[in-house]
Amino acid sequence: MLKTVSEALILAESExxxxxxxxxxxxxxxxxxxxxxxxxxxxAYPDYTLTEAEYSFFTSVLQRRxxxxxxxxxxxxxxxxxxxxxxxxxxxxxxxxxxxxxxxILSIDLSENxxxxxxxxxxxxxxxxxxxxxxxWTISATDMSERALGVAKKNADNYQxxxxxxxxxxxxxxxxxKFDVIVxxxxxxxxxxxxxxxxxxxxxxxxxxxxxxxxxxxxxxIILNAPKHIKLDGYLLVEHGYxxxxxxxxxxxxxxxxxxxxxxxxxxxxxVTFGRYPSL
Length: 280
Ligand SMILES: C[S@@+](CC[C@H](N)C(=O)[O-])C[C@H]1O[C@@H](n2cnc3c(N)ncnc32)[C@H](O)[C@@H]1O
Hints:
The structure is a single chain. This protein is α/β, with parallel strands linked by helices. The chain has two domains: 5-68; 75-276, Vaccinia Virus protein VP39 (Rossmann fold, 3-Layer(aba) Sandwich). The chain has helices at residues 5-16, 23-35, 39-44, 52-66, 71-75, 99-107, 125-133, 146-158, 206-209, 212-215, 217-225, 245-254; strands at residues 77-80, 83-86, 115-119, 138-143, 164-168, 179-184, 230-239, 258-264, 270-276. The protein has a seven-stranded mixed β-sheet with strand order 5-4-3-6-7-9-8, sandwiched between helices. Strands 1-2 form a two-stranded antiparallel sheet. Helix 2 (23-35) crosses helix 4 (52-66). The structure holds S-adenosylmethionine.
């Protein structure tokens, strides 16, 4: 039987209440997405009756969300920095805390034609934000996932960016250039972490999330091998877990970096460490 907006919202809330503490708000997002309406319009037109096609699409989205599928994968897009990125389940959903990497890089006094390397680009969130902001920078973006690179290339095309080069490979594999900045948000979750059983994460690619050695194996590889690929006076910035900053700083120091600093995310948690490769 067809339903009005207000009946559809009641249905959504009752279907979602066991899985989501904010079931009412989730219902608004889902119905808004299904109808292509802003939430204000849902509130303004509670008596609108959904067509058969609208109701059927709404219930299919509701069922996907009920089993926990992330809204970003259902919508196939996510806002990041000042962009709207296309996504599929082959890439990590870009997180707001990763914007700290962008903010920090944009605050460094780099040359107009700087060269940057984004390791593990996923949807392209970091590379594309930087390339869009600084059209004269040249950015190399790598990933070991061919599907992820496909998503990243699509996003770069959507923003008509010509200054990113995509490369398939295992971290520095095939990288011959030297860079002013190397940046990475690598997998850094321990394989036995309880976090992997919660929320959106359950649907994300495990290869984007998990790293051996308590989550530190990829960070270790990226940091210790950075000096071979970084220009003197260049910067390395990595995102990491809130409890990994001490070990990450030791690795930066072991690799020969100076001016090592850890920055906190919007929740006040250690999230980004960066350092400078010393000039002679
Ligand atoms: C945490 S995700 C970050 C994605 C994106 N940079 C972001 O911040 O939203 C890590 C990315 O690293 C990639 N990755 C994992 N292991 C890799 C490896 N050995 N070599 C290259 N990329 C790798 C994954 O495919 C994934 O896209």
